[in-house]
Amino acid sequence: MRVREKGDRGVVQSVVLFLGVSVLSGALAAGLAIPFAGLAGFTTEKTSETLQDLPQQFDEVPLKQKSTILAADGTLIATLAEQNRVPVKLSKVAPIMQKAMVAIEDDRFYEHGALDLKGTLRALLRNQSEGSVQQGGSSITQQYVKMSLVEKANTPEEVAAATAETYQRKVTELRYAIAVEKQYSKNEILEKYLNLANFGDGAWGIEAAALHYFQVHASQLTLPQAALLAGLVKNPTGYDPTNNMKRAKDRRDVVIRRMLELKVISATQANAALKTPVVDPAKIRPNKLGCANSKYPFYCEYVVAELTKNPAFGKSETDRRNYLKTAGLTIRTSLDPKIQAAAQKSIDEHSKAGDSAAAAITIVEPGTGLVKGMVQSRPYGNKKGQTSYNYNVEKSYAGGYGGFQNGSTMKAFTIAAAIQKGFPLNYKINSPNEIDLTRKKFSTCNGTTESFDSYTPSNSTTNVPVPTMIQAAQKSTNTYFLLLSQQVGLCPIAKIAQSLGLYNAQTGQPLDQVVSMTLGVGYVTPVQMASAYAAFAARGMYCTPWLVTAIKGPTGKSINAPGADCKQALAPEVADGVNAVLHQVMEPGGTGSKLKFGKSDLAGKTGTIQGNRAVWYAGYSSKLAAASVVADASPPYVDLAKLTLDGRKIRDASGSGTAGPLWMTAMENALRYYPATKFTAASDKTVRGDVKDLPFVNGMSPEDAANKLRQAGFEAAIAPGTVNSEETAGTVAYTTPRQRDGAPAGSTVTIHISNGSRKSQPQNTPRPPQNTTNPPAPPTTINPNCPPWNPKYPNCGRR
């Protein structure tokens, strides 16, 4: 069989044959697959005009190739495809496959040009005798043209035009076939044909078909395998062995016998092939396309949603999604299967798919933003107990649920804002179990905001009456953080939260600056919260969640993909201070103490929203940060105590008792792959704060003391009631913060009024004589001009 190279006399012969046939029949070429009687009325002149109007160049259609999404270690996450296709060179197709295709579809392929006259006449006579279409006379080149025109079609109407049994379409097809024969060699045409053809059951192209039906490459196909695939092209659905094994075998055997008739194979080969089973059903590889068939469907959809935001992939989201399914991309992602497995193990241990409460966990890497794991309790699907919502991501992503109120996890940002403004870590505020903030004004970025007509928030835990910032964080003291946020102002808190990637996951708008902001505001997601807390772990370096780490085209050439997007959102010293405070939450006495494990420094914060409809735990080491949430995700929302988790009613609807164990199991398993690490210690300046000297006001009247404090640059507030003190009743007993500790400029100093209960004698009573035998005892009071916590006085001492 002679292989004719492009540009030889065959092309000219094809044109001459076409014109000759047209003259004899009026448009014989147009009747290749329609009854002869249909030729009436289609004149030679009309054919000639049509030919002159057709282009001389055939624009090859780009092959639609599948794209693959890979995990960080290269394992497959998902295959995106409109057509499951893997193009290969003809040299990578077994010779027996090439011969089988030529034998059954166009046995004179290498001998004729674009038109096979003998085949055309044979088909024409058969169709005429039967009165209907029984046999096609199209060459492989013509078939390739037809498939290409269908491939180019973007609408049902264009597909219908490309397949219509009309004279015009047949003439157009033949003219294009002539152009193809001018442009390419026979082997090139066969290669394009084999890569473009539909082989049924979702397999497009010879390589995908070989892998799908036999789990071998096209280069490894045997005779019976090649015969089956060659027979499928005529009717990919009808001869599909997964639809009808008998019809598939009959068609395969037709191909084998035709190859024997043409002496392509021997009788011995044919007999052996005919006895071979058509396919082994156990070896047929299912075409699991799309994220729905992924092992990680929610993460996969998150990646696709991120990619469809890239304008480089098309003008519209529809164009971008189509590009992803047809461009043959290899997309490497951030997902670490080991970290993902650790998170999944936690979900499996602490929840069941049928639970009425939903749980979700996201794990990210501090300093890069890589989203290493993302899991949730409800499986992907549309059946009962399943969901298509991703509880980990914002509503702006396809399938994103849009988050939950975040409760006291917001206190971390109040802590950061306070440290940034110079508040010391031992900053004390009188924090009774309940405070009255009715119609109290808090400063915002745009002025002030006012609380409700009646707002008397309280604590949900047992607290120290006058806690430091660390003690308040340990116990999650609501009243302390409300009063601290009033002193710090809501604007600094809002700005820090925004710089760490927090915004309303439902609307995309900034978080509301309301009086109760520090107790939770708006809706946020686990991926947002994990990324924000990761910034503390990275000493103030915030990185936006990073999903796609590399993209390559079908030739292996790299395509620009966004890299890590990081910024120094907080001064390292501020982040170190936050770490020092939140680290104590996981030490004895803290709400997260039962969640501590391993040798690494850990830090975290609980969160419970009003009505216990969602509970959180966000925490981190310097290597990984994670946020877990358990919530009612089915409106109307109710208290978690009425719902089930892990197959039983939730008994402890709290951040530490419900969300905390999920966080702990996930992080404990994930951190096994990392060495133990410690946080950078907070500097003395951060611990002590940027404080000013407080004036000494003990014993003064409350009004005079308040004026003196304001003149010194502080705000003044008078605590209700009185306290036991040696000072005269009705005068100032002491202040919070204490005079010896100092306070940040502009902060509120609370004045406590004495009830005089400890006053043992009048101020003018002479003191008893001192014992001259023994030396005087060391002073028990602090020099008011020498506050020990102020770095300006490093040598100050106190008992």
What would you note in describing this structure?
This protein has 24 helices and 23 strands. The protein starts with 8 loop residues before the first helix and ends in a 45-residue tail after the last strand. The chain is 34% helix and 13% strand. α5 packs antiparallel against α6. By secondary structure, it is α+β, with helices and mostly antiparallel strands. It has a 5-stranded mixed sheet. A 5-stranded antiparallel sheet has the order 7-6-16-15-14. The N terminus and C terminus are likely disordered. It folds into 3 domains: 275 residues, Penicillin binding protein transpeptidase fold, CATH 1.10.3810.10; 267 residues, 3-Layer(aba) Sandwich (Beta-lactamase), CATH 3.40.710; 104 residues, Trypsin Inhibitor V, Chain A (2-Layer Sandwich).
In short:
The protein is an alpha+beta fold.
Question: What keyword list fits this structure?
Answer:
799 residues; five-stranded mixed β-sheet; disordered C terminus; single chain; disordered N terminus; five-stranded antiparallel β-sheet; 24 helices; Trypsin Inhibitor V, Chain A; 3 domains; Beta-lactamase; alpha+beta; Penicillin binding protein transpeptidase fold
